[in-house]
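Task: sequence design from structure.
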């Protein structure tokens, strides 16, 4: 069963937040701050105007990614609003659910069973998942960029805390969290291959232009990155820089 949260409007709101670099920056700053922050403090750290920060915080709050609370015991006048955002859970603090244990057992067994390539079989399973389970995903023809936006939203709903990055040559979806991280680190050839297949299945379902796609597990110690090349048939593709 595909993971779904909220209404279409709510998912669109979450996607809009994640697609904004300034909002992602504000969210990152709040997540690492040991105390709640005011709009003025955030504006100073991010080098933004307070009006701009207020606008983006409203969107983050509406999407449920940031919470606001009045300042306790203000020195004078109206209390200021304080903003906070929960940090992603570290692997050692994640719930060791029955689902996670079952996933670990299955991944380990699949990785060692038979002579077939487990990564190939895992990718095929992920592709089938993307083609069959996301039945309410729009299927009108999409550019690679539009498809990447939709994939970013889907991965946000699944708990990957994604951020979409763009260059003239490619689109990157940086995954700052993985809900399956303990299992993925033990059996990346299975778990990460499933996610690669899922990406390719969703791209096919969206009727996106053919493109090269790679998923690099742990490109940094804490993030995985999906790379989607801009294909020449993509109307939004741009020529590489000289």
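Answer:
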């Amino acid at each position: 069963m595909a993971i779904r949260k909220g209404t279409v409007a709510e998912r669109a709101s979450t996607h809009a937040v994640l697609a904004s670099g300034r909002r992602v920056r504000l969210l990152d700053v709040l997540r690492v701050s040991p105390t709640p922050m005011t709009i003025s403090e955030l504006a100073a750290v991010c080098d933004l105007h307070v009006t701009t920060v207020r606008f983006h915080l409203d969107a983050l709050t509406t999407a449920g990614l940031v919470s606001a609370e009045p300042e306790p015991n203000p020195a004078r006048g109206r209390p200021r609003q304080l903003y906070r955002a929960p940090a992603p859970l570290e692997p050692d603090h994640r719930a060791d659910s029955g689902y996670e244990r079952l996933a670990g057992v299955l991944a380990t067994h699949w990785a060692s069973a038979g002579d077939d390539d487990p990564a190939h079989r895992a990718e095929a399973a992920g592709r089938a998942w993307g083609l069959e389970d996301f039945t309410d995903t729009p299927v009108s023809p999409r550019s690679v960029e539009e498809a990447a936006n939709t994939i970013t939203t889907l991965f946000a709903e699944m708990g990957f805390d994604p951020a979409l990055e763009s260059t003239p040559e490619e689109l990157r979806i940086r995954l700052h969290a993985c809900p399956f991280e303990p299992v993925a680190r033990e059996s990346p050839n299975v778990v990460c291959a499933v996610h690669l297949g899922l990406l390719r299945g969703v791209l096919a379902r969206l009727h996106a232009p053919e493109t090269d796609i790679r998923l690099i597990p742990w490109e940094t110690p804490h993030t995985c990155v999906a790379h989607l090349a801009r294909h020449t048939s993509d109307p939004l593709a741009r020529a590489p820089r000289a």
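Residues 188-205 form the longest helix (18 residues).
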